[in-house]
Amino acid sequence: MVAEDDERIPAAAARPSAFPATRLSVCEAVRSGDAAVRRVGWDALVEAYWKPVCRYVRLRWRADGEEAADLTQGFFARALEKEFFESFDPQRARFRTFLRVCLDGFVANVRQSGARLKRGGGAATVALEPETAGTPLADGDLDACFHREWVRALFDAAIGDLKARCEAEGKRQHFELFRKRDLEAAESDAPPSYDELARASGLPVTQVTNLLAWARRALREAVLARLRALCASEQEFRDEARALLGFTPS
Length: 250
Prior knowledge:
The protein folds into 2 domains: 1-128, no CATH class; 135-250, no CATH class. Helix content is 62%, strand content 2%.
């Protein structure tokens, strides 16, 4: 039995390697006639949207953790089976907006029929952090919540990409410095100074600065790569990048 405040996500949905390696967008990939491309696209779609969808279902539809996870998995399974996203038009809306419309319709139908979706198939799951449903939110707050969770999932995945790249390229010290200075800094009022990092690592301060600069640049590249794949058009990509990172990619 899953605890009331527990959410679960298929382990396969958290693999950075599932993301498309080309500039083909996920929106295109999930509608591809090539089964292999479509499968990669769906893996990437679930990876990017599982947590935002699950959080949204809890807030918008007042679902507990178990029901939200059931509905989330059921939604993605039904979307794949019924090709929900075939009618998506990038000229009319952002993909995440279209996805939310599909999601609301799906949950409304399930609630109306009184159905109870169950996860199955022996899929491995990973527990997420607890979150209470809280008080109902207005539509504008729901939009902001969904967007916030989408951005969080995007950056979490990009950090995973950065870590994998550092390990593959023999740059583990780059990531370790980045983790201590930037990732832990988000949870601390007093992140380590460059001098402290230099003493702890046995490196000159100038080298610490250079390694951190490389890691931050590499993270920005990872974010942009994932963002590009999630956007349905070049203009949407440029707009999103400007909003998230403060500049327009060339």
